[in-house]
Amino acid sequence: MPDLFDPVKLGDIEAPNRILMSPLTRARATRGHVPTHIMAAYYAQRATAGLIISEATGISQEGLGWPYAPGIWSPEQVEAWKPVTEAVHEAGGRIALQLWHMGRIVHPSFLNGAQPVSSSATTAPGDAHTYDGKQPYTEARPLELNEIPRILDDYAKAARNAIAAGFDGIQLHAANGYLIDQFLRDGSNHRTDEYGGSPENRVRLLREVTEVLVNEVGAGRTGVRLSPNGDSQGVDDSDPESLFTVVAQALDTLEIGFLELREQKPYGTFGSSDVPRLSPLIRQHFKGTLVLNSDYDKEKAQADLDSGLADAIAFGRPFISNPDLPERLEKNLPLQQANMATWYSQGVEGYTDYPALTAQAA
């Protein structure tokens, strides 16, 4: 059986170990969603990950509703990403860009007052993070059928821009209650057209977007992220087993480079305690490289590799405060604790100032 420190193929991406850095929103871009120079240092520090999956990155202004998060729709954004990917490559790493459309989670203040879009006229629970503090979410308007081609074009352009910016691949964010997830699950998708109703219909947008990405960058450089277990930002499904069987079969047919699942149980902290783990079911229907994520430690990660359930494990929060996480895990060394107060601040504190082992020793 492989261990965490053995290489793995993620489609066309050769990863030197099975410890991936999962997407982590850090809010270090500009107010105009342009990457900044400190992001190059941050990602380069973490280049020993088998693959870095970048923070979620907006494919369009319509799809981005998080303060100081980066985008990938404009020439300025593409140029600003280039020093980031160059720094990672110079440090010997690999990095994929996660493509993000937030759907109903976008507050109108990001859209000059316009309604956000979703599968149906629904409202997310709770409050949105905005430049003016937390504000209640508003009702989204359903995407019209004649708008779907525009959404597909936005994803296609974002994928092209990612490769132009030097990324090694892309990952479709189809998880966590954002736009694709809003179409997938019947708790948020109330449509009666070909994008609603049956699981096959609700999977249609995911399949079409993934096909577009595969056509743009190749299947071997395309990944997808799902969160099949329980509620995510008010998005849930009445029959997740049936739905995610269809999802897994669709993605398997497209032969994508890798599929990442945000696990909730038994290791996660999201959702209710009685939510079953769906990765074993998805593993039966998706034969490609499967990556699991959510609150793993070394022992639990290795156990899922040993069982054959996972091919790699994506670590999130441990990478915030441990830029050299693979080395620390391999040497069984203590992990540094992150300062949560700086997760979404805009400076270097709590971002690029966590020391690596060599700096600590010095």
**Roughly how much helix do the residues carry, as a percent range?**
25-40%
Mean pLDDT across the residues is: 95
Structural class designation: alpha/beta
Q: Which geometry do the CA atoms define?
A: globular
Map the helices and strands.
Elements: E1 8-10, E2 13-15, E3 19-21, H1 37-45, E4 52-58, H2 75-90, E5 95-100, E6 117-118, E7 127-130, E8 133-136, E9 141-142, H3 148-164, E10 169-173, H4 179-184, H5 199-202, H6 204-217, E11 222-226, H7 240-254, E12 258-262, H8 279-285, E13 289-293, H9 298-306, E14 312-315, H10 317-321, H11 325-330, H12 357-361
Parallel strand pairs: 3-14, 4-5, 5-10, 6-9, 10-11, 11-12, 12-13, 13-14
Antiparallel strand pairs: 1-2, 7-8
Helix pairs in contact: 1-2, 3-6, 6-7, 7-8
